[in-house]
Write a structure and sequence with these properties.
Number of helices: 9
Structural class: alpha+beta
Bound molecules: ligand DP6
Distance between the termini: 32 Å
Strand content: 15-25%
Shape: globular
Length: about 325
């Protein structure tokens, strides 16, 4: 029997910043999250991935930033591709070439854009034609936050109760609100406990049930604030939700302390500047770097102020971005 012809397919996807955080899974293997989350894609920052399935290969070959990848990262990519192979009912390995235009350790979670771009490129390369929901569900299996990098603009990931209804969708297009994310890099060293390990610890914190008790109200408040472009309400709920997540992290066993003293300096200053009337707020992911969200007309002023703070090594600037696309 003649083996099927496979096309070479490329896709681009953007990382995202969560306003309401995903922390902890109800089902770790399926990456079914404990709660719904909300985010914005980050334009200008991207992962580009090219995939070609090849019947002559005896294993997947993954090249990232020009280097052949082996070990646990290759295993994670291969087991993600196994899912695509099983959907397509084809047992063929692939060449994957991927590159980010932002450095590792920039305080920008790269697994979101990585698995969103891979889901789109690999599903097309193997001949599947998945719709946005199916792609978001698929990307979720690689990295939870990747589900949110499939749709464009401002995005909600509904937790759902099963694999079938845990996917993300756009609540507003990228041009809905002129928000800017100023990512303040305080430390670019690799974190010791990554988010996958962190999610597994969330249930060991006595504060996780308290975080979860009102998280849906925060999702609803944040969605409303975005839709109504109500910065005050948005700022209050975004900071509260980030603080809840870090309280859970700090009280899990073992505890996860991601912040540096400089993290607190940025958070403290942003709070004070908001009291002065500048529409800015902060959120922190699983690392020390701070994402400062500001209305675009104040971005220049805010960037200058942040650059003066002790410990701020570099600032990346991103606006609301599109969803994943073929390229
Ligand atoms: C703190 O999606 O990176 O950034 O599913 O294990 O890949 P895995 O975790 P990941 O977790 C993101 C955690 C977070 C909050 C968020 O983005 O919602």
């Amino acid at each position: 029997m003649k083996s099927p012809e496979f096309k070479t397919i490329s896709a681009v996807a953007h990382p995202n910043i969560a306003f309401i955080k995903y922390w902890g899974n109800r089902d770790q293997a399926l990456r079914l999250p404990c709660n719904s989350s909300l985010s914005m894609n980050l334009s200008g920052l991207e992962t580009r991935t090219t995939v070609r399935f090849d019947p002559h290969l005896t294993r997947d070959v993954f090249v990232f930033s020009g280097e052949v990848v082996v070990g646990p990262v290759l295993e994670r990519v291969s087991s993600f591709l196994d899912r695509i192979r099983s959907l397509a009912k084809l047992n063929v390995y692939a060449h994957i070439i991927s590159r980010n235009n932002f450095p590792a350790g920039a305080g920008i979670a790269s697994s979101a854009s990585a698995f969103a771009a891979l889901a789109l490129a690999a599903s097309h390369a193997i001949g599947l034609d998945l719709n946005e929901q199916e792609l978001s569900r698929l990307a979720r299996r690689g990295s939870g936050s990747a589900s949110r990098s499939i749709p464009g603009g401002f995005v909600e990931w509904q937790a759902g109760i099963s694999d079938a209804d845990s996917f993300a969708f756009s609540i507003a297009p990228a041009n809905h609100w002129d928000l800017v994310d100023l990512v303040c890099v305080l430390d670019s060293a690799h974190k010791t406990v990554g988010s996958t390990g962190g999610h597994a610890l969330a249930d060991s914190s006595p504060l996780q049930p308290i975080r979860l008790a009102h998280v849906q109200e925060r999702v609803d408040q944040c969605r409303k604030a975005i839709l109504e472009r109500d910065f005050e309400s948005f700022a209050q709920v975004v900071e509260e939700d980030s603080n809840f997540m870090h309280a859970v992290m700090r009280t899990s066993t073992p505890p996860l302390h991601y912040w540096l003293p400089e993290t607190e300096i940025v958070l403290w200053n942003v709070l004070n500047w908001r009291k002065e009337g500048i529409p800015a707020c902060s959120t922190v992911d699983a690392g020390p770097n701070v994402h400062v969200l500001v209305l675009s007309e104040y971005a220049f002023e805010m960037e200058n102020r942040l650059a003066e703070l002790s410990g701020v090594q570099k600032i990346f600037k991103a606006s609301p971005g599109p969803g994943a696309s073929l390229c």
